[in-house]
Amino acid sequence: MPWRIKKKKQNFKIYSMARATEFILLGLTSQQELQPILFVVFLLIYIITLTGNFGLIALIRFTPRLQTPMYFFLTHLACVDIFYSTNVSPQMLVNFLSEKKTISYTGCLAQCFVFVTLLLTEYYMLGAMAYDRYMAICHPLHYNSRMSRPLCICLVTFPYLWGSMVGTMQVILTSRLSFCGPNIINHFYCADPPLLMLTCSDTYIKQTALFVSAGINLTGSLLIILISYVFIFITIMRIHSSEGQCKAFSTCGSHLTAVTMFYGSLFCMYLRPANEQSVEQGKIVAVVCIFVSPMLNPFIYSLRNKDVKQALRIVFTRKLGTVEKMSILTVSQ
Fold first, then answer.
1. Are 59 and 308 contacting, i.e. CB atoms less than 8 angstroms apart?
2. Which run of H or E residues covers position 185?
3. At what angle do helices 35-61 and 306-332 cross, to 10 degrees?
4. N- to C-terminal Cα separation, the chain
């Protein structure tokens, strides 16, 4: 994220003495023979992401027993993952098959805004889900009364509003920078570190804002999660039966897995100096954060959750029953 960026002289062929109107994205690799293969791979990842998250949303929406605060938050997390991946995937897929891998200046700012907004939204959405697990395990008798519908709506509204506000602030600061030199971004989307390496303006204010934002939001959301789980583990350790402990752990196992994967990739992506070598390494980590995590989240919450698995079995049983009835009617006719 925000470090003192050392600008190195590089032999770029494309320069503009006026303000840049578009940027060229170098993408994951410059090897042309790999572009079609990468297109197929990331197209499959995107399709799986959309199918998994939309399927999870539909399952929760139409299953009465899943109408609880936990699944209310999970629905919004799935929505965030869909838009998070969609913000980058279509542009990236087009660039795999295009010789001119460009993005407009306005499009670049829009992508930065959506990325920051959804990133912070996911921070605090995971925090809200951790608080929900804390209430369910540590205060089960008061869970339904305290986790009321209005409170749940407030807990999901705050991440969207806060993310939008910070995203707007960051984009305004970026728009005040001048890009009058090279316009080649060494990344597959408009990310701040490689973008700031291209500006001919003083980046001190922008870098400071990034540093403060990263520090407050990453630390703040992670503290909410850690404090919630400290109390959860203390409560679980007080349960005498091993069966009760396993049942309590199982209710938060999926969330812990998703948090570990998401925050692990974020720390690897941002806690590194912003130089050319780190940008190259950061591309791989960004793939995990932007593509792999949203793709796996629906499966993490489905495969490790008894309620979701039971709801899936009911849906498939009904579908099979409907198919059998239609087959019998067809044969009888």
1. yes
2. strand 184-185
3. 90
4. 68
Reported as a single tens digit per residue, the pLDDT across 25-61 is: 988 888 888 899 999 999 999 999 999 999 999 999 9
In terms of phi and psi (left: phi > 0; alpha: psi -120 to 50; beta: otherwise), the region of 16 is beta
Name the residue range of residue 100's domain.
22-332
Residue 12 within any structural domain of the chain: no
CATH number for the domain that contains residue 179: 1.20.1070.10
Q: pTM (2 decimals)?
A: 0.85
Backbone torsion region of residue 102, taken as left when φ is above 0, otherwise alpha when ψ lies between -120 and 50, otherwise beta: beta
- Between 319 and 187, where is the model more confident? 187
Which string of DSSP letters, residue by residue, matches 137-163?
HH-GGGHHHHS-HHHHHHHHHHHHHHH
Q: Which two tokens stand for residue 205?
A: 């204010």
Residue 142 burial (10 A CB sphere; 0-12, 13-18, 19+): exposed
Question: How is residue 200 written in tokens?
Answer: 């001919």
Residue 198 forms part of a structural domain: yes
